[in-house]
Amino acid sequence: MESRLSLFPLNTEATQKGHLVIGGCDTVELAAEYGTPLYVYDELTLRNCCREFRNEFGQRYADTTVLYASKAFLNKAIANLLKEEGVGLDVVSAGELYIAKSVEFPMDMVYLHGNNKSVEELKMALKHHIARIVVDSYDELRTLAAMAEEGGHIPDILLRITPGVDAHTHSHITTGVTGSKFGFPIFDADEAVDRAMSAPSLNLIGLHFHIGSLISDVQPYKEAIDTVLDFAAGMRDQHGLELEELDIGGGFSVPYTMEDKVPEVSVYAEVIVSRVIRKCKQLDLPLPMLTIEPGRAIAARAGVALYQAGVIKNVPGLRKYVSLDGGMADNIRPALYDAKYVATVANRMQEGDTDKVTIAGRFCESGDILVRDIELPPVMAGDIIAIPGCGAYCLPLASNYNASLKPAVVMVTGGKARLIRRRETLKDLIADDLL
Ligand SMILES: Cc1ncc(COP(=O)(O)O)c(C=O)c1O
């Protein structure tokens, strides 16, 4: 049990009476006050993760920019915190850009990605003079060049290159392999560089790649850096490209269970920075600005999902189910790609793990199982179940399946909790319906 706590936010502890405490707030009291399911974000952990990326990369490579991948989870409070931490944003939609605008996020720290950006999204990006538009296809290159010509603002762009590197992760979250829907395949990207450089309405600054998510092996980063820098050197020789920026995307892993072995941020930083420096030297390329886009590695550990246990069902000789008041509607990851989690009983932290149970969600799918076969203290209806590692890719993928209400979100720090998103209400469910 002690060791499971290491998967929770930084300042997590168990009190004498056996309650789980995060950021000085008793989670059992939070559940009583705000209801469940409840997502709890620890402010210190979020800030610490931002600083860790900025420091570990920045001390090895001064010209580093850290962008948070908004898709991991963005709302106004999170955007504000990132602004305070000097971390920029990678956005992929008008919606994410709108959230950034709503807190006056500095637009010169915002990058727009996406394999099918709409004309409206490109228009919004041009209007707000965001830092970079990361161009993903020939169609987009053409459309953007025409729009920029008409609008009179020359955007700084990166070209997203698919380096043909396998990040050895789940197929749903691999993006760097040849044949991916993202980016220009490297064997077909010469022309993109040529066209971008010759478009007077576009300013080509550099290249981007993102090879996937949950990458626990540093080797694919090395391969992708080598491949893309080789390509950049070829483009310099062929078309006179000056690579001012190399954006290597995100993908840094986090542990979800005690078995997960994940490199420290310092290890990613050391491997990536030394590879960029070595390769640039070898190819006689000036060192470009280095951009990284961690999403999960900033948000995952900071977030904990709290649920209340309801029905306990023993299927004799097979399995004992503990059913929760949430599940796949607020966390689709286990059902979507077999993601693994652990759990604790937030009001029985001092008791031994003597019971093997499977934690099920409440939704009408047999696949709605959050944790299979985990040892816990004997759970009773009304107990509070806490699942760590829920800060990234849970709430943004949440749905209203079974007409459920999306959970409330609180931010905790120094023993104080504040609501940063209210729970949906039954009225919200029909607010957009017309008879
Ligand atoms: C372009 C890009 N950058 C960054 C990320 C963030 O990835 P992660 O959350 O694994 O760091 C993603 C995730 O899909 C992405 O597509």
Give the tally of structural domains.
2
Estimate the helix proportion, in percent.
25-40%
- The proportion of residues in beta strands is 15-25%
- Taking all Cα atoms into account, the compactness measure Rg is 23 Å
Bound molecules: pyridoxal-5'-phosphate
List the helices and strands and how they pair.
Blueprint: E1 12-14, E2 20-22, E3 25-26, H1 27-34, E4 38-42, H2 43-58, E5 64-69, H3 76-84, E6 88-91, H4 94-102, E7 110-112, H5 119-127, E8 132-135, H6 138-151, E9 156-162, E10 184-185, H7 190-198, E11 203-208, H8 219-239, E12 245-247, H9 265-283, E13 289-292, H10 296-299, E14 303-315, E15 319-324, H11 333-337, E16 344-345, E17 355-360, E18 369-376, E19 384-387, E20 408-413, E21 416-421, H12 426-430
Parallel strand pairs: 4-20, 5-6, 5-13, 6-7, 7-8, 8-9, 9-10, 9-11, 11-12, 12-13, 15-17
Antiparallel strand pairs: 1-2, 2-3, 4-14, 14-15, 14-19, 16-19, 17-18, 20-21
The structure holds pyridoxal-5'-phosphate.
Structure description:
The chain has 2 domains: 3-35 and 302-430, Beta Barrel (Lyase, Ornithine Decarboxylase, Chain A, domain 1); 43-299, Alanine racemase (TIM Barrel). The model has no long low-confidence stretch (mean pLDDT 96). The chain contains 12 helices and 21 strands. Helix 6 links the parallel strand 8 and strand 9 (156-162). Helix 2 (43-58) runs parallel beside helix 9. The protein is 29% helix and 24% strand. It is of the alpha/beta class and 435 residues long. Strands 4, 14, 15, 16, 17, 18, 19, 20 and 21 form a 9-stranded mixed sheet that branches. The protein has helices spanning 27-34, 43-58, 76-84, 94-102, 119-127, 138-151, 190-198, 219-239, 265-283, 296-299, 333-337, 426-430; strands spanning 12-14, 20-22, 25-26, 38-42, 64-69, 88-91, 110-112, 132-135, 156-162, 184-185, 203-208, 245-247, 289-292, 303-315, 319-324, 344-345, 355-360, 369-376, 384-387, 408-413, 416-421. The protein binds pyridoxal-5'-phosphate. The site of pyridoxal-5'-phosphate (PLP) has 16 residues, from helix 10.
